[in-house]
Amino acid sequence: MIRVVLPAHLRTLARVKGEVTVEAGETPTLRSVLDALEAGYPMLSGTIRAHVTLERRPFLRFFACGEDLSHEPAGRPLPAEVASGAEPLLVVGAIAGG
Amino acid sequence: MSQVRVLAGTRKGAFILTADGKRQKWQVSGPHFGGWEIYHMKASPVDPNRIYVSQSTGWHGQVIQRSDDGGKSWEPVDNKFVYDGVPGTHQWYDGTPHPWEFKRVWHLEPSLTDADTVYAGVEDAALFQSTDGGKSWRELSGLRQHGSGPHWQPGAGGMCLHTIILDPRDPERIYIAISAAGAFRTTDGGKNWQPINRGLRSDYIPDGEAEVGHCVHHVAMHPARPNVLFMQKHWDVMRSDDGGDNWREVSGNLPSDFGFVIDIHSQEPDTIYVVPIKSDSEHFPPEGKLRVYRSRTGGNDWEALTNGLPQADCYVNVLRDAMAVDQLDACGVYFGTTGGQVYASADAGDTWAPIVRDLPPVLSIEVQVLQ
Fold first, then answer.
1. Does B36 sit within 8 Å of A51, measured CB to CB?
2. Among A30, B59, B241, B305, whose Cα sits 20 to 30 Å from the Cα of A79?
3. ipTM of this model?
């Protein structure tokens, strides 16, 4: 079970409070977690990564276990602590706006 | 008694303002979708409780919301706006080729005959259609693939398709407008499009009378007289009496013919409204006086409407989709400002009062009369 922390706007859109959890296979990757997230919460499709290219939206980043995973290949296995559920995957919005 | 519902899209959420037919005491509901930009929200004329909303942010892109109960509850529907085929390029500000990239939905226009059919005008300029209540979208790509597409350029606000007008006589006949490409018309439901910009003159483009390239800010049609179109261009207020084939200027005695909004009295097809803005480089009212101008002669002769509007030190703007009229007698006129005020007139513009004063910057205004 993978724990995912979403930014506030996406928690509101998905109508969830706090963390969400998804099943993302035996060797979870960023791609499999986002696939599972979008399958469970279809309204999030296109809000974290682009619909067709599946590229991360430019004002978002991914962190886990104190590491920036934003530029890691989407198919690379996530850290063992994320896979075990000990640590969450953080989807973080850039400090921007006004 | 009738109820009036004003739908206000703002930089930081949606607001729904309601009153009875007297239009004096207003209830404010919102913010809905707080923190998101609401470029536009509009209800179906077939099912007035069906409301479509364009919701977006720089972080998370585009979301489309739908309500089937007049805005009490909402459901996100499909947000997949994918251009048909290989989109190619348009011109960038400096004239270089730039790939077509979807950014947001500027305008949603529900069908006049089917609550599940709705059109979306998007940036970069294209027209999409849903026939299942927003659950899926497809591009009507004949517009973007019109031969002039590679020559279209963005205006300062982006290359947006901001105006969609459905002809009440003929569902196959649609008018759209793009900043800064101009106005276009289809007579076959969106398969083929024709630029309709003859008579426009724009001194800010190399060929001032080019077929495309004009920065049209908004176009309005009265449903009882669908061949007559009124246009607020970047500069110039224009009129066409032949469905856009030819345009003539009707700016007349306006203090400035720059502006964004234009709308038509619901019972008097020759009574039109604009809000003059000082210039393309100073987007606020001339002399710091917020004045709606009304022409009762279809243009050229204009009177300033000031009663209830600030006449000193006012430097707000009124954006292109931020004016609407209701269907009551006397006609109600509404507009929103970048200062967060929504003004209403229940007497066709003779007197004005703010419904609310302190919303986020207003991007769009629509109004419904509910029986």
1. no
2. B59
3. 0.95
